[in-house]
Write a structure and sequence with these properties.
277 residues; alpha/beta; Rossmann fold; Hect, E3 ligase catalytic domain fold; two-stranded antiparallel sheet; 9 helices; 11 strands; 45% helix
């Protein structure tokens, strides 16, 4: 008897835009297993709200599947997905996963593509489908990047306003009590020229974060390097794989979009000092 486990994944964006449902995927996978001769369902692994662009090590569901496969060799024989791009939207990660499955004598099957990597033709088809999954993901990212780039400078693009500001009608307005803390952070850093020393002094003076918590050097750096304080909106500051990107990779608004808290010359000096540390 062939024993199946189901892996299913859906990102928050896919749920919102495409109406993908984990329950619907699971139902189709269960129906597929029942249609096979001498097959049994073992369990389902899932990653709800996780992007397929994230590596497997960052997704608890697929990570647990791999751990179980290595520790319990006879737990299952095949991994079933509703569609191959549920496994990953990265060609490299998809190929690496399939290689790992194969090394442990597990086949990968897909309901939608009618894919089975236990056969030579199935493995060839797998490579083609995996390439298209990455291509589709890259196209989606490019469309999102272009759309967001065109909106930069029009108004706030989403998220919570940083300390020193509040959002009113999609635009930043200064919160004077918080702005005083931001100005003090820059002033202390210019004198001490140390992120840790700045955080310590701010905490000692009880000039805490918006949530009344202590400052840490990482949070101090985020304030000092945020161009919102000189009246600019920035986007594309982080990458799913690389984390926080350098300032040179950010997209900035064309001109000022709101009232600044910090003078530009002070902000630029802070960047010079930080880059030298």
């Amino acid at each position: 008897m062939k024993k199946y486990v189901i892996y299913q994944r859906v990102s928050t964006e896919e749920q919102k835009l495409k109406g993908y449902s984990l329950d619907a995927m699971n139902e189709k996978c269960q129906h597929y297993i029942k249609s096979q001769d001498s097959a049994a369902f073992v369990r389902t692994y899932e990653d709800a709200g996780f992007s397929g662009s994230l590596p497997p090590s960052k997704r608890p569901g697929i990570k647990q599947l791999l751990e179980d496969m290595k520790s319990e060799r006879d737990l299952f024989d095949a991994i079933l997905v509703w569609k191959l791009d549920r496994l990953s939207r990265s060609l490299r990660d998809t190929l690496n996963l399939e290689f790992t499955f194969s090394k442990h004598n597990k086949s990968l099957e897909s309901v939608t593509e009618r894919l089975d990597t236990s056969t030579a033709s199935g493995r060839m088809f797998f490579n083609t489908i995996a390439s298209f999954a990455e291509f589709e993901s890259a196209q989606t990212s490019e469309r999102t990047f272009n759309a967001m780039s065109s909106k930069v400078g029009q108004k706030h693009l989403g998220g919570v306003a940083p300390i020193g500001y509040k959002l009113t009608g999609g635009h930043y307005e200064i919160v004077q009590e918080e702005a005083a803390i931001v100005r003090q952070i820059f002033k202390v850093y210019m004198r001490r020229r140390s992120l840790l020393s700045t955080a310590n002094e701010m905490n000692e003076r009880k000039m805490l974060t918006r949530n009344n918590k202590h400052w840490y050097h990482i949070r101090i750096k985020e304030v000092l390097t945020n161009p919102v304080y000189i009246g600019l909106i920035a986007w594309h500051k982080t990458d799913r794989r690389k984390g926080r990107l350098p300032l040179s990779k950010w997209i900035f608004s064309n001109g000022k979009t709101h009232e600044a808290i910090i003078e530009e010359k002070i902000f630029n000096l802070a960047q010079t000092l930080i880059s030298g540390q």
